[in-house]
Design a protein that fits this description.
Elements: H1 19-26, E1 34-38, E2 44-51, E3 70-74, E4 76-78, E5 81-83, H2 85-104, H3 110-124, E6 131-134
Antiparallel strand pairs: 1-2, 2-3, 3-6, 4-5
Helix pairs in contact: 2-3
Length: 139
């Protein structure tokens, strides 16, 4: 897989943690647009982050956590550029707008809305894509 040539802060913000720790406690799904995971043999995997917060898409949600509330998916690269990333971001924006409307109409609870977001994102993945999802614990 080709790797991006863009500007990336080369100083890691976390070292020696598990992928689950990264996704659950370290990653800010709203404020980090990308995530690069480097394993022990120094293989780099680029991921796009998707925040599941819905406070900007509907009236019934006042705030949403930015940690442990979203998905990351692998990004395909060609000649140093992400392929299909703009389309994927547009898909997510449209999905979140629709889910926000459904929350406002009472069709979804917050929990069922998050479940629906996850199912839809997983349905968009191609066989070689990887997606990881973290959502807050149900109360």
């Amino acid at each position: 897989m080709g790797q991006p040539d863009g500007q990336v802060d080369v100083d890691p913000w976390a070292v020696g943690i598990t992928l689950d720790e990264l996704l659950t406690t370290q990653l800010d799904y709203l404020n980090h647009e990308a995530c690069y995971v480097v394993d022990e043999p120094l293989d780099v995997t680029a991921f796009r982050t998707h925040w599941f917060g819905l406070q900007y898409e509907c009236r019934t949600i006042d705030s949403s956590p930015t940690h442990c509330n979203g998905a990351i998916r692998t990004v395909r690269w060609y000649d140093g550029e992400p392929v299909g990333d703009g389309f994927a971001q547009g898909q997510l924006d449209g999905l979140k707008t629709t889910v926000g409307d459904m929350l406002d109409c009472g069709v979804f609870t917050l929990s069922s809305a998050r479940d629906y977001l996850e199912r839809q994102i997983r349905s968009w993945m191609r066989p070689n894509d990887t997606v990881f999802v973290r959502i807050p614990a149900k109360r």
